[in-house]
Amino acid sequence: MDVILIPGFWLDASSWNEVTPELEAAGHRVHAVTLPGLESADAPRAGIGLEDHIAAVVELLDGLDGPVAILGHSGGGAVAQGVVDRRPDRVARLVFVDAAPIADGDCVNDELPVVGDEVPLPDWSVFEAADLVDLDDALRDRFRSRALPHPAAAASDPLRLHDERRHDVPTTVVCCEFPSSQVHEWIAAGVPFVRELAAHRDVAYVDLPTGHWPQFTRPAELGRVLADALAS
């Protein structure tokens, strides 16, 4: 199967490099994405919004034959969600890696510090302790050395959803910083930020206990989890 991997904020396609071998060993054709505005440190980011990111992945999807799996990490989950909303009949499985679908009209994160047209990778003190589990000093240095500023509009633009068939696409949620049991409790309690996830009709949960960036902290395990999800 063709598998599209969408990175989260501050990352490009290379962030999946240590994850893809497990998927390729399972026979999948991997297409890791570098989203518009993240091609380089000095790439133009003005005017690049969430719809531009969605459109770029839709264009990639339209160039592939047959069903495709879409995987999104963190903020890349909203991009994956937008793609599925535009092409629900083309997606065999949607996978969120330490992410969950957001509702129509919500944004990914409009609280991150913005500098001009971009969101640079903030100081580690901005993040919750759960985000940083297993991300030791060496991994933090590695992450920061390759981090790219994210287009500010892509973080704050509202996601627009139109096709209710997105709720029928088989979905997997890989839970890292919060266990799946916590997610189930949030859904049962009607917590607003999981209301879109609650509307999905076919959802599998997989626990991979680590911080928010498993592609750095547990890449081989993440690759196996993803391969197993696609096999289902």
TrEMBL record:
<protein>
    <submittedName>
        <fullName>Alpha/beta fold hydrolase</fullName>
    </submittedName>
</protein>
<keyword id="KW-0378">Hydrolase</keyword>
<dbReference type="InterPro" id="IPR052897">
    <property type="entry name" value="Sec-Metab_Biosynth_Hydrolase"/>
</dbReference>
<dbReference type="GO" id="GO:0016787">
    <property type="term" value="F:hydrolase activity"/>
</dbReference>
<dbReference type="InterPro" id="IPR029058">
    <property type="entry name" value="AB_hydrolase_fold"/>
</dbReference>
<dbReference type="Pfam" id="PF12697">
    <property type="entry name" value="Abhydrolase_6"/>
</dbReference>
<feature type="domain" description="AB hydrolase-1">
    <location>
        <begin position="3"/>
        <end position="222"/>
    </location>
</feature>
<dbReference type="InterPro" id="IPR000073">
    <property type="entry name" value="AB_hydrolase_1"/>
</dbReference>
